[in-house]
Amino acid sequence: MEQNMQTGIVFSYENQLSRHNEFEVDLNQRSRNQYLTVPIDDGTYPLSHIKEKYLNLPLLYKFYSKVVNVSTGVTVDYFVGWKDLTKLGSVELRSYSISPKLYVGWTLKVGKAIKLSPRFILEPEIWFNPLFDYEYSYSGVAVKLKYKL
After folding, report:
1. CB 51 within 8 A of CB 60
2. Which of 56, 67, 64, 68 is CA-nearest to residue 15?
3. Euclidean distance between CA atoms 114 and 120, whole angstroms
4. Are the beta carbons of 106 and 139 closer than 8 angstroms?
5. What is the sign of the dihedral through the CA atoms of 72, 73, 74 and 77?
């Protein structure tokens, strides 16, 4: 199992509709490591390490309770680029693309809001996000620091 620890900034908008119901939209960047063999002129197939980069847009419904908060909804991932991380000095990938560039998935998050002040809220959460027709899923742990306007 591959570990892919990342830090990042998520732009998020939350609109609380009622005491227990909320609508949430996020925009963040994430990546996926790909390992593939590519034929070269001498007939060998060296292993290449590619980091695919995506913009991720989840559209979520969030249910608040005193115990935990649960979010679920659709996610859209759009391929925005790649980087060759191969450590073979003589082999260099010059181009890389995928098709399609847009993937749809579903996410489930469970978290707990901890009120630090009337305006600041700390919310640790765990999440799982499979992508349909991609045979891949993301999962992780996050800690959000939110500011109420």
Report:
1. no
2. 64
3. 9
4. no
5. negative
Identify which of 34, 140, 146 has the alpha carbon closest to the alpha carbon of residue 93. 34
User: Three-state SS for 7?
Assistant: coil
Output the pTM of the full model.
0.81
Q: How far apart (Å, rounded) are the C-alpha atoms in residues 143 and 123?
A: 6
Query: Cα(57)–Cα(75) distance, rounded to whole angstroms?
Result: 6
Query: Which amino acid is located at 127 in the chain?
Result: W
Tell me how far the alpha carbon of residue 15 is from its chain's centroid.
21
Strands 69-84 and 114-115: unpaired
Average pLDDT, the chain: 86
Alpha-carbon 74 to chain mean position: 12
CA distance 70 to 61: 8
Instruction: Name the residue with higher pLDDT: 2 or 51.
Output: 51
Element containing residue 27 per DSSP (H, E): strand 21-37
Q: Strand, coil or helix: what is 65?
A: coil
Which ranges of 27-128 does DSSP label H, i.e. alpha helix?
Answer: none
pLDDT at 89: 61
Helix (H) or strand (E) holding 115: strand 114-115
